[in-house]
Amino acid sequence: MASSHVAFLAISMVLLCSVATAVDHVVGDESGWTLNFDYTKWAQDKVFNVGDNLVFKYNVNNHNLVKVDGATFKNCTNIPQGNEVLRSGNDVIPLGTPGRKWYICAVSDHCSRGMKLAITVQYDGPAPAPSAAPALPSSIYGVFVAAMVAIAAIFV
After folding, report:
1. φ and ψ at 52, to 5 degrees?
2. Which residues, 6 or more positions from 29, have their beta carbon under 8 angstroms from its beta carbon?
3. What gap in Å lies between CA 27 and CA 46, rounded to an integer?
4. What are phi and psi of 31, to 5 degrees?
5. How would residue 22 be classed by pLDDT, with cut points 50, 70 and 90?
6. Rounded to whole angstroms, what are the CA distances from 146 to 9, 82, 89?
7. Closest CA to 85 of 108, 61, 58, 103
8. Cα separation of 116 and 102, whole Å?
9. At the N or C end, where does the chain have fewer CB atoms within 10 A?
10. 23-126 adopts what CATH topology?
């Protein structure tokens, strides 16, 4: 029974660590998704990784959100049929793949007035192992595992 608690705790810790690295980027920070805001400047010092989320907060009576391609983003015209128009006022967009992503407000002339966001999503995978890294001696590894089990037992 205790071993199942320890296994559950160990699996939970691994899952929590992977979730804890994801970031929710609230687009426009306190200003949200609105007119008269420089989204290029907002995005320039941010790192967007696979697994992060973009959160668009806006007034549903005045704005919407559409994911578009680069040409539509640049021209702010001719939103292709089939592009989903989001209107919740609190749209959460999971960043599931690396690469360029483009978002606009398709209400009236909002896109041409600057209500658009372009980002590059990076893959934040595990770092490659050093080629000449020495292996951890099994005795140290055993001590580490024993310490983790002891800590887990305290919380179970």
Report:
1. -75, 170
2. 42
3. 11
4. -75, -30
5. confident
6. 14, 55, 49
7. 103
8. 7
9. N
10. Immunoglobulin-like (2.60.40)
Q: What is the pLDDT of residues 34-46, one digit of tens each?
A: 999 999 999 999 9
Task: Work out the number of other CB atoms within 10 angstroms of the CB of residue 106.
Answer: 19
pTM over 0.85: no
Residues 72/79, Cβ–Cβ less than 8 Å: yes
Under DSSP, is residue 125 helix (H, G, I), strand (E, B) or coil? coil
Give me 121's structure tokens: 């999503």
Residue with tokens 């989903």: 84
Distances (CA, A) of 93 to 8, 16, 105, 148: 30, 20, 14, 36
Write down the domain spans for the chain.
Answer: 23-126
Q: Parallel, antiparallel, or unpaired for β 99-104 and 116-122?
A: antiparallel
| Residue among 43, 84, 50, 92 at smallest CA distance from 67 | 84
Q: Are 69 and 80 in contact (CB under 8 A)?
A: yes
